[in-house]
Specification:
globular, 81 residues, YaeB-like fold
């Protein structure tokens, strides 16, 4: 599998703190290797939109869709608690 980031995801990643950027890259590597990796905690977020959510760290999440053999990273955002 491959991954592609939307412009919004790229911009969010660029403004995120450096530890979040590093964690995202690590998690993205897990995603392209195995969506079921336990550290990702990937799950379907919105059935209708076929949108998935995965964990960056305790405070950040990323959202993606799957088309063919590409994970499209739609957005990266802080996770409200």
């Amino acid at each position: 599998m491959n991954a592609q980031l939307s412009q919004g995801a790229i911009e969010a990643l660029a403004t995120a703190p450096l530890p979040v950027q590093k964690a995202f890259i690590k998690q993205l590597n897990f995603l392209v290797r195995n969506i079921r990796h336990p550290g990702l905690r990937a799950k379907k977020f919105d059935e209708a939109a076929d949108l998935w959510q995965a964990r960056v760290n305790d405070d950040w999440r990323f959202f993606f869709t799957i088309k063919s053999d590409i994970y499209y990273i739609e957005r990266i955002t802080s996770h409200p608690k």
